Amino acid sequence: MIEEKDDTGGVGAGPSPANDTAELPDAELPDEGIETTPETRLAEVEAELAEAKDRLLRALAEAENTRRRFQREREDSLKYAIAGFAKDLLSPVDNLRRALDSLPESEVGDPRVKSLLEGVAATERELLGTFERHGLKRIDPKGERFDHNFHQAIFEAERADVAPGTVVEVLQPGYVLHDRLLRPAMVGVAKAPANAAAADDSESAA
Q1: Which of 37, 83, 86, 147 is 20 to 30 Å from the Cα of 76, by its Cα?
Q2: Is 153 helix (H, G, I), strand (E, B) or coil?
Q3: Are strands 151-158 and 185-191 parallel, antiparallel or unpaired?
Q4: Distance (Å, whole) CA 140 – CA 59
């Protein structure tokens, strides 16, 4: 008996072999959350831009403040650079004034001495003029109201002819460099006489 061959040339027509590739279940996709809408994304971008703008403005403001502070410090350093040098010159100027006060010109009879005093006075004027050109000014507050910001009280004197607190004597003039006190003026200040103060107390008690 002759066996039939199938079309593939094999012997017999057996059952079809099982498919080796099994169908896999659909792969699960990760949960991507709520879908972002264009409006939401636009709002997020606008918020990010606003935050970046705020940081930029803060950085610019800080840079401007730093520039202004540096400029102010530079101007102050130039403005007050001569403070130490000017302070060292105050004592020689004081000595010139003491020399002039020690021998008033009205009491000088010798022409040579008078000429010498005039030369000392001219030197003092020239120095004070140079001081003022560089912002250094003398404080000579006789007759003015005492100001603790620029004056230093050395003594008090009872005076009935002036108001209490008035500068009646300047022992040593002061100096300011621009708006900065370089040396306070040493002064004597008037106060009310004791009998006037007692009278005021009596009136207050009455």
Answers
A1: 147
A2: strand
A3: parallel
A4: 49
Assess if residue 131 is contained within a domain. yes
Residue 190 is part of a domain; what is its CATH number?
2.30.22.10
96 domain-assigned = yes
169 in any annotated domain: yes
Number of structural domains (the chain) is: 1
Domain that holds residue 114: 83-200
Under DSSP, the state recorded for 105 is G
- CA triplet 46, 49, 55: central angle to 5 degrees? 145
Distance CA 65, CA 59 (A): 10
Residue 144 lies in a domain: yes
Q: Which of 161, 163, 141 is nearest to 153 (CA)?
A: 141
Quick: pLDDT tens for 158-197. Answer: 999 999 999 999 999 999 999 899 999 999 999 998 876 5
Structure-token match 């003039």, residue found: 173
Per DSSP, which regions of the chain are E strands? 136-139, 151-158, 167-172, 174-177, 180-183, 185-191
Left if phi > 0, otherwise alpha if psi is -120 to 50, otherwise beta: which for 33?
A: left
5, pLDDT greater than 60: no
| C-beta neighbour count of 86 within 10 angstroms | 19
Question: Taking the model in full, what pTM does it have?
Answer: 0.61
Q: Which phi-psi region, left, alpha or beta, contains residue 135 (left: φ > 0; alpha: ψ -120 to 50)?
A: left
143's tokens: 């007759």
